[in-house]
Amino acid sequence: MSRRVTHRVKIDNADVILKRLLGFIFENYKLHCIVTVIFIMLSSLASVAGSLFIETLIDDYITPMIGQEAPDFMPLISALAMMAGIYLVGVLSTLIYNRILIEVSQGTLRKTRDMLFEHMEKLPISYFDTHAHGDIMSIYTNDTDTLRQLISQSLPSLISSVLTIIGVLISMISISIPLTIVVLLMVAVIRKVSAYIIKNSSVYFVEQQRNIGKVNAYIEEMMQGQKVIKVFTHEEKAIAEFTDINNELFDSAYNANKYANIMMPVMGNLGYVNYVVCAIIGGLLSIYTHSITVGGLGAFLQLNRSFSMPINQISQQVNSVVMALAGAERIFRLLDEKVEVDEGKVTLVNALEKDGEIMESKNRTGMWAWRHPHEDGSVSYVKLRGDVRFHDVDFGYVDDHIVLHDINLFAKPGQKIAFVGATGAGKTTITNLINRFYDIQKGSITYDGIDIKLIKKDDLRRSLGMVLQDTHLFIGTVMDNIRFGNLDATDEEVVAAAKLANADDFINHLPEGYNTLLTGDGASLSQGQRQLLSIARAALANPPVLILDEATSSIDTHTEAIVQAGMDELMKGRTVFVIAHRLSTIQNSKAIMVLDHGRIIERGDHDSLLAEKGVYYQLYTGALELD
Fold it and tell me: Is residue 136 within 8 Å of 264, Cβ to Cβ?
């Protein structure tokens, strides 16, 4: 069977990533790390002491008793008891540091996930538009799990192995320098072989981690798009694409484990060869030169095994370290993503008006104002009215590709402004600029006369309500989902918002009414019902400016009438921006903007645009269709 040759990926700045990772662990668990190293040292010393005891056991206790008619076993028993105590210290040390490492590893994972989520919530919308959600999920699951393996297994094993190697090497030198030289020569051979294996496997382990992210991203995308796949009968195409991606994961995982799995048997057999060579040479030295005793040879051979084993462990753990570094690289890359920059100083505050002057209030008054601090230290207050204006705005998602050109429009408080145009004309993009999901390249956007760049983003968005075509419902009760519009709202206020949105009737017909649990993005509800909940959520937020992004495009005509009635109530007294496919829903708009390729080509109310007999007239009469 032939396999594709995949491109092998290396970790950039592996030493920097390792240093940063260890610094992060040590910063949060400094005392734990110190105590762990102490107990690892005790465990390693106990192991070395046990090997050295073989020389004493044979030469000082067993050999002298050979041939004795009535040997005294008490000294031997006392020595064995002392050695048992040393081994007990080693066992307890191992148990203690492993127990500590559980806390360190799980605590590090918890803090890492907290940091990732907190940072992710601060990222701009553009990040999620350009990164597959499944790949992001893989960072939280697969990549963080590699850190667990590193902390709880690889790092302690590496530290223990290094300490054991140092202790054993010193002990071997004290017993026989010639045999130690033989061991070091054999270790050089073992090291050469392991380096070759590690070199070939590590790059594939890095690629494996990245391919896992690709597979997760594709699976999530296909799960979300199952209806579309089935409607267009593209199951075979989806299967073929997944097979290609899955094969890439197979290739990288196959090659990574192909080398990793031969590491242990190769190292083990070379260790046996090392043992046999030392036994032969040591036996000759003991017989012909008497430079080493029988007990010394027994102890040396045991130390030889103790020397080879940690070297093998280091070789085996290197791949785990490489995987952890690959995971850490992806984690740090997300943490290093630039968060939304917010240089705004204008905030939204409770206010009251007295003698024509607006003042800030500590209590909730039902009236809001913009608190605008100035460079001279003074503060002015501007009543929140919902006056939104675009002045010569150009915008592009990337600087060298402008998608909106010279946009000029104004929406006075309480006015309804509608956007009409083909898909990609720029309708949704305009609304995304109002809440600063993206920043413009040219011109300005003002809100109640204040440049929105001066307003803190949280305060700006708190004053805006949105009802989107694709409604997202969270796992929770109906009441919880409506309350998402205002987490401080009472149950009575939630019900009032639902009644305003014409959602109360269908909610009361649900199995448990407002306490009905919704899962799977509200899959048990119809599209119209989900949209009504979205409108109720916006009503509860009670924003002065409302954005309706094709909110009725996926609803049947009967449901649309119900939803439209709810939206009409919601829109009263508010500045409203409407994006609509159905022109019947925007005939009462104060102004209708017809967009084409990012430009406003017609503007006016319904009657004036019909009289012009331009693009809007053709859309309304059916000569043109919105795609």
Answer: no
Name the DSSP class of 598: T
Read off the tokens for 77.
């028993």
Q: What is the mean pLDDT of the chain?
A: 82
| Closest-CA residue to 340 (of 122, 129, 136) | 122
Considering only the top CATH level, what class is 388-621? Answer: alpha beta
What separation in angstroms does the CA of 424 have from each of 597, 598, 613, 617, 627?
7, 8, 23, 20, 9
> What distance in Å separates the CA atoms of residue 34 and residue 478, rounded to the nearest whole number?
51
C-alpha 272/C-alpha 280 separation (Å) is 12
Query: For 94-144, what is each residue's pLDDT tens digit?
Result: 899 989 988 898 888 889 989 998 898 888 888 888 887 778 888 888 888
546 and 493 Cβ atoms separated by less than 8 Å: no
Which structure tokens are listed for 239?
Answer: 């299967």
Q: How many CA atoms lie within 13 A of 24 on its CB side?
A: 20
The residue with greater pLDDT, 223 or 386, is: 386
CA angle, corner 289, sides to 283 and 292, nearest 5? Answer: 60
CA distance 555 to 423: 18
Count the helices and strands in the chain (H runs, E runs).
21, 16
Cα 462 to Cα 460: distance, rounded to the nearest angstrom: 5
The DSSP code for 124 is -
Q: Which fold has domain 14-335?
A: ABC transporter transmembrane region fold (1.20.1560)
Which sequence spans correspond to the domains of the chain? 14-335, 347-383, 388-621
Calpha distance 95→310 (Å, rounded): 19
- The contacts found for 481-489 with CB under 8 angstroms, 24 or more apart, are 481/518, 481/522, 481/533, 481/537, 482/533, 482/536, 482/537, 482/540, 483/540, 484/537, 485/536, 485/537, 485/538, 485/539, 485/540, 485/541, 486/540, 486/541, 486/542, 489/540
Place of tokens 């022109």: 583
- pLDDT (tens digit per residue) in 88-107: 988 999 899 989 988 898 88
pLDDT for the residue 2: 35
Neighbour count for residue 621 (Cβ, 10 Å): 10
pLDDT in tens, 266-301: 776 777 787 788 888 888 888 877 788 888 788 888
Q: What is the pTM of this model?
A: 0.69
